[in-house]
Amino acid sequence: MKRIAIVVVVLLGVVGASLAVGAGNQIDTLRKAAIDREPEAPAIAQVENNDIRRKRAYPMQPPTIPHKIDGYQVDLKVNRCMACHSRHRTEASQAPMVSVTHFMDRDGNFLAEISARRYFCQQCHVPQTNARPLLANDFHDIDDLLRASQSPSQQH
Fold first, then answer.
1. Statement: residue 17 has pLDDT above 70
2. How many helices (H) and strands (E) does the chain have?
3. Is 88 assigned a ligand-binding role in the annotation?
4. What is the C-alpha end-to-end distance of the chain, expressed in Å?
5. Is 85 among the annotated ligand-binding positions?
6. Residue 144 lies in a domain
7. Are 118 and 125 in contact (CB under 8 A)?
8. Where does the signal sequence lie (predicted)?
9. pLDDT digits 0-9 by tens, 94-130
10. What is the mean pLDDT of residues 8-37?
11. Close Cβ partners of 56 (under 8 Å, ≥ 6 residues apart)
12. Cα-flanking dihedrals φ and ψ of residue 79, to 5°?
């Protein structure tokens, strides 16, 4: 009796798998393509290279990078970003210095060099792009909300 039950389960599994393969073109996927075909990759958004800093949308948001960083070496031996953004180079480069928080260890002690936990810049900072949002978004930053809540006579 157990053998018959096992055979029936195996046969049902085989039939179900073959039906699923046949119906593979009918499954709606997140990538909007059949499971058995590789869709064409979407175009990569172009990096803005206008050297104009964008306004931050919320407090403590890491600033976005207003220039191209193609080919920048950031590894255990070299951090190309620091060639312009280190404390010693900002006067010559006119680039903003990295925040003092980048020189703090996890215990709040200030270090002479950038902290290891803040060394890899692209963990938080990304290049500015012309990419359209992937999802609809109705986020409003605090400035927009404050402006909207003020009456016309209070605005200046």
1. no
2. 4, 0
3. no
4. 86
5. yes
6. no
7. no
8. 1-20
9. 999 999 999 999 999 999 989 999 999 999 999 988 8
10. 66
11. 63, 141
12. -125, 100
Contact between 63 and 124 under an 8 Å Cβ cutoff? The reply is: no
Cα→Cα distances 131→58, 81, 84, 93, Å:
20, 23, 26, 28
Read off the pTM: 0.60
Tens digits of per-residue pLDDT, 79-96? Answer: 999 999 998 899 999 999
Residue 26's pLDDT band, with cuts at 50, 70 and 90, is: low
124 labeled part of a ligand binding site: yes
Domain count, the chain: 2
Residues 25, 97 share a domain: no
Is 102 known to sit in a ligand binding site? yes
Residues 86, 104 contacting (CB under 8 angstroms): no
Q: What is the DSSP letter of 140?
A: -
The count of residues in the chain is: 156
Tell me whether residue 156 is in a domain: no
Give yes or no: residues 103 and 32 share one domain: no
For residue 125, say whether it is annotated as part of any ligand binding site.
yes
- Is 156 annotated as a binding-site member? no
Residues 41-73 have pLDDT tens digits of: 777 777 777 778 888 878 888 999 998 898 999
Residue-range definition of the domain harbouring residue 84: 45-131
**In whole angstroms, what is the distance from residue 43 CA to residue 32 CA?**
16
Looking at the fold, whether 28 and 90 belong to one and the same domain comes out as no
